[in-house]
Amino acid sequence: MMPSATIIGLKTQYHFCIMARVKVIAIANQKGGVGKTTTAVNLSAALAMRGKRVLLIDVDSQANASQALGVEVDCEHSIYQALIGNKLMEELIRPANRRNLSIIPAHMDLSGVEVELTQNGTHLTCMRDAMEGLRSSKYYDYVFLDTPPSLGVLMTSSLCACDEVLTPMQCEFLSLDGLSKILYVVEQIRDSGANPNLKHEGVLMTMYSNTNLANQVIAQVKENLPDQLYTTYIPRSVRVAEAPSFGKTVIEHDPYGTASMAYQNAAKEFMARHRKH
């Protein structure tokens, strides 16, 4: 399936306990401005509130997920150090000051790592190799990767390391092209053997307003990917934009607002879809 404007066919200080194998989910969309980081932060927080042990890994050099949780960012404690082999990923885990939620921050130095990884030939396997200790620990229920808005090395390496991909998608027709590209890349990575069990888990509609355009876009996604479309839509809300300036999730900033309730419902739906996990 080629990209097109429409969808075609388609130990440090932690005490570990015996649990089911950790599920690693990449929050991915090569198109920017679709609510990817907002979804990564708020879905992680909502699941943590429901008793799930969650680790959020910020894989974007803009470090917006780290900042949104009020976590101080510096190069020595960035995911960058694990990707270049300087530190174990477990050493980089930091508390997010929320029960059941931890984070591995990013830093602007991550912007140059793509060149380094390409030169030493580890660009496809670096994330998977770095996460080996996390997978064997079985401490976390879910690990989310907040990927950059591109189809570069960090994105493809994240897709090679994860079990599933969740795509936040803005309710606009141009976003269909972004979704098509992500589906294509997932298919290519799976078929190449780099990650043969990779699954595109779902599509979460964001920035929703009850307009003909938004509903037409949703209808097209539902027609082509009926089992992957979340029934929860995240509405447009100024509270979502305000929350990071306070170092809060929208769930904390405006707990009874429409966007907050939507993310909490999305978390419930996510858990229902992963009930066997």
- Net shape: globular
> What is the ordering of alpha helices and beta strands?
EHEHHEEHHHEHEHEHHHH
Tell me, rounded to a whole number, the average pLDDT: 87
CATH class: Alpha Beta
Which oligomeric form is depicted? single chain
DSSP E strands, number: 7
CATH superfamily: P-loop containing nucleotide triphosphate hydrolases
Whole-number tally of structural domains? 1
Class inferred from helices and paired strands: alpha/beta
Topology (SSEs and partners):
Elements: E1 23-27, H1 36-49, E2 54-58, H2 64-68, H3 79-83, E3 94-98, E4 101-104, H4 113-120, H5 126-130, H6 132-137, E5 142-146, H7 153-161, E6 164-170, H8 174-192, E7 199-206, H9 212-224, H10 238-242, H11 250-253, H12 258-273
Parallel strand pairs: 1-5, 1-6, 2-4, 2-5, 6-7
Antiparallel strand pairs: 3-4
Description of the structure:
There is one protein chain. With 277 residues, the protein is α/β, with parallel strands linked by helices. It has a single domain, classed as Rossmann fold (3-Layer(aba) Sandwich), CATH 3.40.50.300. Helices cover 39% and strands 14% of the residues. The chain is built from 12 helices and 7 strands. The chain has a 7-stranded mixed sheet, sandwiched between helices. Helix 8 links the parallel strand 6 (164-170) and strand 7 (199-206). Helix 1 crosses helix 12. The longest helix is centred in the middle third of the chain and has 19 residues, at 174-192. The relative contact order is 0.19. The model is unreliable at 1-19 (pLDDT under 50).
